[in-house]
């Protein structure tokens, strides 16, 4: 196991180096730099040049790359020109909001997807299963920003049950749990519609396979109630492939949801990336991309390791 | 194999990391099969109707999506304006048709770009194998480690400009799934006898790859392209929604939905529902068609 993890981590090093080089090149071939964006439209050519020099952007890019990589290895992600703060500080401010939103969305998705997938598999090819499959396919094709707009129109503007957007009510600056949760409902529902559709299909497929296994037949034959067969026996095995899906959500917990955060003006990591992209905030863009890439690699590795933990038949060699 | 077709859609997914598997049922009962092809028929009809309407109707009736009529802003649906007007008094139905032309073309061309790059890349990687394959697939891994939406947002905000740049930006961020898919297919196809036969009569690698191997992967490629069009349309509309895709005044379903968000407070439901519904119907139609093509493909493999 240890050897397996070590080998996978070693293999990840060239991939991650590739990510840093690729992102660095992309950012530096892009027209218009942060100096131009920072100086605004009124800046003269001389002012822009001075700013470029001050930011160290007039050095050849291989030199900039080495300086940046060296700082990165020392845990320094650089300084955001846009926000005038260290990138690590920016991330530390916003990461909790994004993790809260993503955690909420994840719980909602799983709470719907698992029972639905199990029931569809149990009643497979019934009228319910077939109509649910079509409905889920439609949900899966949903443009999220439109769904979010609809939710706002219905629940926030017409019915006035929930807030339109933001982090929490502006009436108080103190941390306000009820208000926080009220502000999470619509964005989490928007995020959950697509993932719920995909995941329940995943669980249905996996459960259909498990229901054909001998152990399921044995459990039914010895007279166990259906509920016990489905949830105690079959679901336990049926959820194993789902580990891969959960591993894939690891980077999302960091990166947030650019579009959903934009719809609901939610100050999370997605919004930070979006602001950095349109303002050419190099340090923040690079830092967020590299951390996301690390989490993609770790998420895949975590999924593979968890397979071995929950399924003793899996061997690493 | 079949799962790879789904992962294309999954990794390009906007705002959600979702992987859809295929339930491995041996053969669906006949009733279900008939029903699925009914959905496929409706989907095909919808796509054809949308294409015809968007390209022919505005030209035939000389409709102008840019004609402003401020006196009749936010007019509810009526005989003169079947879908009402927007905040500048422009006819919503006309803009919907003109926007559809943009969104459908961006979806189709971006999918074409992605499939072209993916097919050539994947075919070369799978056919030559060995260290070339390892190297090319490591490059794919590098790209896949960067969240697709990050790359898409970044490129679209850097190279914003016209419709053509947008098509290329979406295309070059979507080829990884097709590349993996085609590589997998080519790995098995290159062992076939007809490849050996072609080689024995002196055909070169390029001829074997593009005249013999790739045409035999056509089924997989066409299925993936169909899903890809839906994904590319969602990418276009998402970028336009964020304001870095198709820019006003040129209409697209994405930027129409973007401005619709501020029209909620004007109570203009006719600006929110129609563009969203046609977009959802069209992405659904392409996904249903793709799903149906995939099923047909698997059945023909199982039957052969």
Structure description:
The complex is a heterodimer of chains A (317) and B (304). Chain A is mainly α and 317 residues long. In chain A, 74% of the residues lie in helices and 1% in strands. In chain A, strand 1 and strand 2 form a beta hairpin. In chain A, helix 1 (2-29) packs antiparallel against helix 15 (282-310), helix 5 crosses helix 8 (177-211) and helix 9 runs antiparallel to helix 10. The longest helix of chain A is centred in the N-terminal third of the chain and has 36 residues, at 87-122. Chain A starts with a helix and ends in a 7-residue tail after the last helix. The model of chain A has no long low-confidence stretch (mean pLDDT 85). Chain B is an all-alpha fold and 304 residues long. Chain B has a single domain, classed as Orthogonal Bundle (MetI-like fold). Chain B contains twelve helices and no strands. Chain B has helices at residues 2-11, 30-60, 92-128, 130-145, 148-158, 163-172, 176-189, 193-200, 205-216, 218-242, 253-263, 269-303. Chains A and B meet through helix 1, helix 6, helix 7, helix 8 and helix 11 of A and helix 2, helix 4, helix 5, helix 10 and helix 11 of B.
Count, helices of chain A: 15
Largest sheet entry of chain B = none
Helix content of chain B: over 70%
What count of helical segments of chain B does DSSP give? 12
Fraction in beta strands of chain B: under 5%
Which CATH architecture of chain B would you pick? Orthogonal Bundle
Q: Radius of gyration of chain B from the CA trace?
A: 22 Å
Q: Please give the CATH class of chain B.
A: Mainly Alpha
Kindly state the mean pLDDT of chain A as a whole number? 85
Structural class of chain A: mainly alpha
Gross morphology of chain A: globular
The major pleated sheet of chain A works out as: 2 strands, antiparallel
The shape of chain B is elongated
- Unreliable sequence segments of chain B: 1-32
């Amino acid at each position: 196991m240890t050897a397996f993890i070590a080998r996978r981590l070693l293999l990840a090093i060239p991939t991650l180096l590739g990510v840093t080089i690729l992102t660095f090149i992309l950012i530096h071939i892009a027209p218009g730099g942060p100096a131009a964006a920072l100086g605004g439209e009124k800046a003269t050519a001389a002012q822009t040049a001075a700013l470029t020099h001050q930011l160290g952007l007039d050095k050849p890019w291989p030199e900039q790359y080495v300086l940046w990589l060296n700082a990165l290895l020392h845990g320094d992600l650089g300084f955001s020109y846009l926000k005038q703060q260290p990138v690590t500080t920016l991330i530390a401010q916003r990461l909790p909001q994004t993790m809260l939103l993503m955690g909420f969305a994840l719980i909602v998705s799983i709470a719907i997807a698992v029972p639905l997938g199990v029931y569809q598999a149990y009643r497979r090819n019934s009228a319910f299963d077939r109509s649910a499959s079509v409905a889920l396919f439609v949900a899966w094709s949903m443009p999220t920003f439109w769904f979010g707009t609809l939710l706002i129109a219905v629940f926030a503007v017409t019915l006035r049950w929930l807030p339109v957007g933001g982090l929490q009510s502006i009436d108080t600056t103190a941390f306000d749990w009820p208000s926080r949760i009220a502000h999470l409902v619509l964005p989490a529902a928007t995020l959950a519609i697509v993932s719920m559709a995909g995941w329940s299909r995943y669980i249905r497929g996996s459960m259909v396979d498990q229901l054909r296994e001998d152990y399921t037949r044995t459990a039914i034959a010895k007279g166990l109630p259906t509920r016990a067969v489905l949830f105690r026996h079959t679901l336990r095995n049926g959820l194993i492939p789902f580990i891969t899906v959960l591993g894939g959500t690891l980077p999302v917990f960091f990166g947030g949801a650019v579009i959903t955060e934009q719809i609901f003006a939610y100050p999370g990591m997605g919004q930070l990336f979006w602001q950095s992209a349109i303002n050419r905030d190099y340090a923040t863009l690079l830092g967020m991309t590299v951390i996301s890439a690390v989490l993609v690699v770790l998420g895949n590795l975590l999924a593979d390791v968890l397979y071995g933990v929950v399924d003793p038949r899996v061997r690493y060699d | 194999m079949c799962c790879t077709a789904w992962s294309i859609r999954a990794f390009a997914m906007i705002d959600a990391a979702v992987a859809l598997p295929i339930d491995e049922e041996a053969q669906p009962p006949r009733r279900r099969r008939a029903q699925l092809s009914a959905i496929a028929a409706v989907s095909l009809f919808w796509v054809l109707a949308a294409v015809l309407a968007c390209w022919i109707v505005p030209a035939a009736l000389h409709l102008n999506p840019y004609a402003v009529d401020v006196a009749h802003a936010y007019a509810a649906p009526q005989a003169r304006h079947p879908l009402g007007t927007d905040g500048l008094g422009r006819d919503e139905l006309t803009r919907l048709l003109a926007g559809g032309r943009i969104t459908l073309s961006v979806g189709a061309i971006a999918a074409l770009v992605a499939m072209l790059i993916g097919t050539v890349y994947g075919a070369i990687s799978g056919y030559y194998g060995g260290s070339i394959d390892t190297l090319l697939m490591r490059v794919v891994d590098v790209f896949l480690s960067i969240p697709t939406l990050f790359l898409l947002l970044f490129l679209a905000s850097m190279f914003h400009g016209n419709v053509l740049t947008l098509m290329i930006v979406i295309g070059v961020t979507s080829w990884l799934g097709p590349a993996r898919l085609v590589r997998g297919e080519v790995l098995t196809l290159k062992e076939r006898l007809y490849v050996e036969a072609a080689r024995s009569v002196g055909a070169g690698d390029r001829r074997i790859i593009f005249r013999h191997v790739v045409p035999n992967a056509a089924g997989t490629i066409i299925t993936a392209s169909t899903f890809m069009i839906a994904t590319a349309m969602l990418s276009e509309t998402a970028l336009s929604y964020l304001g870095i895709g198709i820019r006003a005044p040129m209409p697209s379903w994405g930027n129409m939905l973007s401005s619709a968000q501020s029209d909620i407070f004007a109570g203009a439901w006719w600006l929110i529902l129609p563009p969203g519904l046609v977009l959802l119907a069209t992405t659904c139609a392409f996904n249903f068609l793709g799903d149906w093509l995939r099923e047909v493909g698997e059945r023909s493999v199982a039957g052969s």
